[in-house]
Specification:
This protein is about 5% helix and about 45% strand. It is globular, with a radius of gyration of 13 Å. Strand 9 and strand 10 form a beta hairpin. With about 110 residues, the protein is mostly beta strands. The strands form 3 sheets. Strands 2-3-4-8 form a 4-stranded antiparallel β-sheet, with no helix packed on it. A 3-stranded antiparallel β-sheet has the order 1-10-9. Strands 5-6-7 form a 3-stranded antiparallel β-sheet, with no helix packed on it. The two termini are about 25 Å apart.
C-alpha cells in the first residue's frame, strides 16, 4: 500500500468528517472517536447525497438527504435499505491520518 498523509486527527471533528478531493470524486473521512478514522465515498448511492454532511453514530453514517444508514466499516447499507458505498483503508500514526493511496488509484468513475 502507498499511504497519503491527509490531515492531523485533530483536524477532523469528533463524530464529523472532512472531504478529500480526488480526480474521480470525493472521499469522506470520518472520525468516530479519539483515534478511530474511516474513509468512504462521499456520495450516497440512493440519491447522491453528500455523506460528509451526514450524522455520524457508532461506526455508521446517516445520509442527510433521505436518512439511509451505511456502515463505515463495510460500506453496506443498514436495515431495509440496499446498496453499498466504497470504503478505503485508513490508519493513524503519530496523530496523523493516512489514507490508502493505492486504493484511490484503482478507483473507478461512476
Amino acid at each position: 500500500m502507498s499511504w497519503i498523509d491527509i490531515a492531523a486527527v485533530a483536524d477532523i471533528p469528533l463524530r464529523g468528517a472532512r472531504v478529500v478531493k480526488t480526480k474521480l470524486g470525493c472521499v469522506a473521512v470520518f472520525r468516530t472517536d479519539e483515534a478511530e478514522v474511516y474513509a468512504v465515498s462521499d456520495t450516497c448511492p440512493h440519491k447522491g447525497g453528500p455523506l460528509s454532511d451526514g450524522l455520524v453514530h457508532d461506526r455508521k453514517v446517516t445520509c442527510p438527504l433521505h436518512s439511509w444508514v451505511f456502515s463505515l466499516e463495510t460500506g453496506e447499507a443498514q436495515g431495509a435499505d440496499e446498496g453499498r458505498i466504497e470504503t478505503f483503508a485508513t490508519r493513524v500514526e503519530n496523530g496523523r491520518v493516512l489514507l490508502d493511496g493505492t486504493a484511490l488509484g484503482r478507483r473507478t468513475a461512476a
